[in-house]
Fold DNA-binding response regulator.
Amino acid sequence: MSTTTSERTADPVRVALVDDQQLVRAGFRMVIDSQPDLLVVLEAGDGEQAVRELDPVARTATGPVDVVLMDVRMPRMDGLDATARITARGTDAQPAPRVIVLTTFDLDEYVLAAIRAGASGFLLKDAPPEEMLAAIRTVHRGDAVIAPSSTRRLLEHLVTVLPDESPDSAAAPARRAVADLTDREREVLVLMAHGRSNTEIAGDLYVAEATVKTHVGRILSKLGARDRVQAVVVAYETGLVRPGG
């Protein structure tokens, strides 16, 4: 059932849909706009249009966008380039919107590239509507890796196609950063990679949730990660967590 404007929460999560298939966007809009705390405020049919319309200056009159659902394969500019350009424009005063990449299993390398470009998560295009809605809310909150079970399965699948890298490669700084983590921080990072939320990690380790949040903040800082998803990618890439482990 659709939700009227008067029934919406005061500050709904503002969503942009970027997909070259109009019917796909229409379906996503119908699902998202049915929720009182979510609102689609922008649609784009390719990455170039998304980059243009999500420019902070262009959004001054119409308001910011909080979360972007970004398809990978699109004409003119694909989702990878668009994600990199959109997330690169963020500042402390005006953060860039968080990007959720829409994908299928046959696009593994593209997803990993998007995460490295600054995407905050990924979602299978055939995921149930409830999972999509949960992903938007979770990424906006910045609290947990989206859709823990499917995210872990997909991430483990991605890692199996990563090229082998020598200690002298670009992965070396990440390995040094992981080595710089304390034992407790590594423990928290492993649990993050297993899809555990802050609340769940606190229960696992018998500590306060505020303590977990402190550890997570330090982990992100040491790894130079924008958010939890990027930190988890580092955990897999450096071998701290193994597929199936």
Notes: The chain has eleven helices and five strands. The chain has two domains: 13-146, 171-238. The first strand starts at residue 13 and ends at 18. The CA atoms of residues 147 and 158 lie 16 Å apart.
